[in-house]
Amino acid sequence: MPFEGPIPVTEPEFLGCLSNCRRVGFHSSPLTGIKFDRHVYYEFFRGCDIRGVSFANANLEGAEFIRCEGDHTSSFLGVHNVEECAIDRYTLSSLGSDRGGLTTAQQQKMILHDPVVEMRKRFSGFWRLTHALLISLFLAPYLWFLLCRYYAATIGDQTFPEGTTTSIAWALVRFILTGGDGWWRNDWSVSVPAALSFMFVFVYQCVRAILLFKTQQLESYEKLHGLPANFEIYVDFGSVRKEIRYARELTSFHTLGPLMSAILAYAAYNRHEALYENGTFWGKLLYVHGVLAFIALFAFVINFGQFLLLPTPLAP
After folding, report:
1. What CA–CA distance (Å, rounded) separates 299 from 293?
2. What pLDDT digit, counting tens, does each position of 276-289 carry?
3. How many CB atoms sit inside 10 A of residue 10's CB?
4. How far are the Cα atoms of 131, 153, 178, 292 from residue 184, in angstroms, in the given order?
5. What SS3 state is found at 262?
6. Alpha helix stretches (DSSP H) within the chain
7. What CA–CA distances, in Å, run from 6 to 3, 20, 42, 76, 278?
8. Gap between the Cα atoms of 108 and 146, Å rounded
9. What is the mean pLDDT of residues 171-198?
10. Residue 22's closest CA among 46, 36, 40?
11. What's the whole-model pTM score?
12. What would the DSSP string read from start to end of 195-236?
């Protein structure tokens, strides 16, 4: 049951319902004055104004606080059962130095979302070098082709028979569309598998490069300003948040997590009404990257399997 925008905060019966209900979603709702003193069981607060809101002595099991605006008047004193309660760095920082009364032990039990950390886990350090290497390997044959064509056009034999020349740009296009097989022939033809493979890998590498650049930008901002960057990557799928988190935990290879999350979310969306929009641009781009990475991995496994099945002579 989602609520978006202002809600009636003057009806006592309505307030009593809110303080003891489950799976309620609040999106950009001003909640000033409301006391959630009972169960806040799997309730979702996204972009809400929780200044002056009291969660004292409430059960926060499975609750989620994302991009909420709080201050020192927001109270979490005496809350219990914070298992699977999720809160992002922005909301936690807005509660002030005392964190709204949350103890250190309670914060350790909660799920802390930090979008910058999530980006760095995927596109910083070792993974940054890996992504950069894969982008370089993708570009290498095309750069080498351009260098060879430049040498042939400027340094090699300058006498060309009529009708046997073309521009370097069009030669590159023919090289891509043919997969490098017979691109120089007059009767060249497009290789559909090669062209489709190039377009898929090209889009994948562009997404990878954009996310690498964004991660570097976020890291530079935090180093220069000494403050956390105002950044968000969340993609909300309402009541399937826990299933998405479990999918990520069960996945050992980091690029499979987003795809499994997307599949679970799509399946659950057909059964439940999604509480929110499908997230920010960067969150969507991360999921696109995960899906493309899974497809690329699947294609690699198929090709490697075909390689292993090639006949080889039984000779040293």
Report:
1. 10
2. 344 578 888 888 88
3. 7
4. 32, 14, 10, 32
5. helix
6. 12-18, 89-94, 104-109, 115-123, 126-154, 168-178, 192-225, 241-250, 256-269, 281-308
7. 8, 19, 21, 22, 21
8. 55
9. 89
10. 40
11. 0.71
12. HHHHHHHHHHHHHHHHHHHHHHHHHHHHHHHSS---------
Q: Is 52:33 a contact under the CB 8 Å cutoff? A: yes
CA-angle at 33, arms to 68 and 236, nearest 5°: 25
- Length reported for the chain: 316
Residue 54 in tokens: 């009291």
Return the residue matching tokens 């607060």: 45
Question: Which amino acid is residue 68, in one-letter code?
Answer: C
Residues 114-158 have pLDDT tens digits of 888 888 988 999 999 999 999 999 999 999 999 988 888 887 656
Instruction: Scan for tokens 């809160």, then name that residue.
Output: 87
Question: CA-to-CA distance for 245 and 237, rounded, in angstroms?
Answer: 11
Cβ-Cβ contacts under 8 Å for 215 (sequence gap 6 or more)? 119, 120, 122, 123, 124, 128
Helix/strand/coil for 7: coil
Amino acid at 95: L
Number of Cβ within 10 Å of residue 117's Cβ equals 13
Report the run of H or E that residue 4 belongs to, with start and end.
strand 2-4
